[in-house]
């Protein structure tokens, strides 16, 4: 029941529909690049939640003092890994909080947007379930989250 063939263009399309107003709000330059030549039969719910949480964060925590905002989502196969990279030029996360980023209920810009502080904790749980890894870099220039999931557990 958990595993079904995944069409990433469809998943991204659905995410864009649900996040329509978030994409509109800051006039963000939002681009997605999907290059997944093999059909992956896996857990659509978890993959959708991973991608949607990271994209919604990238959109929510934009920097209104910058001349323009962008969010870039790359989904591709790299060697034996399935890779998701979400990059933004938003407000970033202060270095002193980097060790708390995946903890539940932690929010570092509560004034900027609504949220419960659960998105990244859930993403991390899902990545662990799928035996993958998640890394990020974040500064006042923006943030990049990178997830790699071994194809062996996905296909
Ligand atoms: P929820 O996702 O539950 O709606 P949330 O977005 O506040 O709420 P998380 O997704 O777990 O919670 O993120 C935790 C905090 O990390 C955010 O409140 C925000 O301060 C910071 N954060 C996450 N992603 C980014 C990002 N791309 N740029 C800047 N800050 C971020
Ligand atoms: Mg979030």
TrEMBL record:
Domain named Histidine kinase is located at 1-153
Protein name (database record): histidine kinase
Q: What is the lineage of its organism?
A: Bacteria, Pseudomonadati, Pseudomonadota, Gammaproteobacteria, Alteromonadales
